[in-house]
Amino acid sequence: xxxxxxxxxxxxxxxxxxxxxxxxxxxxxxxxxxxxxxxxxxxxxxxxxxxxxxxxxxxxxxxxxxxxxxxxxxxxxxxxxxxxxxxxxxxxxxxxxxxxxxxxxxxxxxxxxxxxxxxxxxxxxxxxxxxxxxxxxxxxxxxxxxxxxxxxxxxxxxxxxxxxxxxxxxxxxxxxxxxxxxxxxxxxxxxxxxxxxxxxxxxxxxxxxxxxxxxxxxxxxxxxxxxxxxxxxxxxxxxxxxxxxxxxxxxx
Length: 252
Ligand SMILES: [Zn+2]
Known about the structure:
- Helix content is 37%, strand content 23%.
- The protein has helices at residues 4-15, 47-55, 78-90, 99-103, 109-117, 145-156, 184-189, 202-211, 220-223, 227-239; strands at residues 2-3, 27-30, 35-36, 38-44, 60-65, 93-96, 119-125, 131-136, 161-163, 173-176, 194-197, 214-217, 242-245.
- Zinc ion (ZN) binds at residues 64-65, 178-179, 220, 224.
């Protein structure tokens, strides 16, 4: 058992949210009970995750995608009211860390995705250094982007969209979890042979073909499943709290 305030200090110390310009507030987004015993981690503070956390008797939720974003107009209606009502009724703390969770060098989404895929990060690139650039750990290269795509499909257990040159060898791999479309040009400039992210938008398909760099979209959710449980598990262990990761599947 620990206090909510200590938990917030621990998450902040680890993730250093003050270093980032972000799209929403990082840290404690919804205040619940003072004393904490069990954390449920997840990717998104969806209604399904909140309900699952309540069923799991958690008093704290730790996510990557919280409830509040810059584009919202501040009204607590509809789906937002429903999610908030559940949290408040159950007195659950909601912690959310967006870019700081992508960025953390060992426990973040990118670091953990790299680990999962067997990629060693050598350097960082792009805005706020959220892009990771490295190489395969096991061998010098993948024989082709096609082989890399098959590897990712196997590890993440979902289809991957591959655009661009499929058959040339891949030595330098860049990756940026989630909606990293806008990091593609920086990845090309950094010298990547292939770029892995969650989503693809129309312009990147042309860029991939025209610049000769393979683009692999492996799912926003699938690419961001690993940071939240890694951070929550470490902080839970620090305080002797229970922790459980709940994956609410999302095809996007
Ligand atoms: Zn995301």
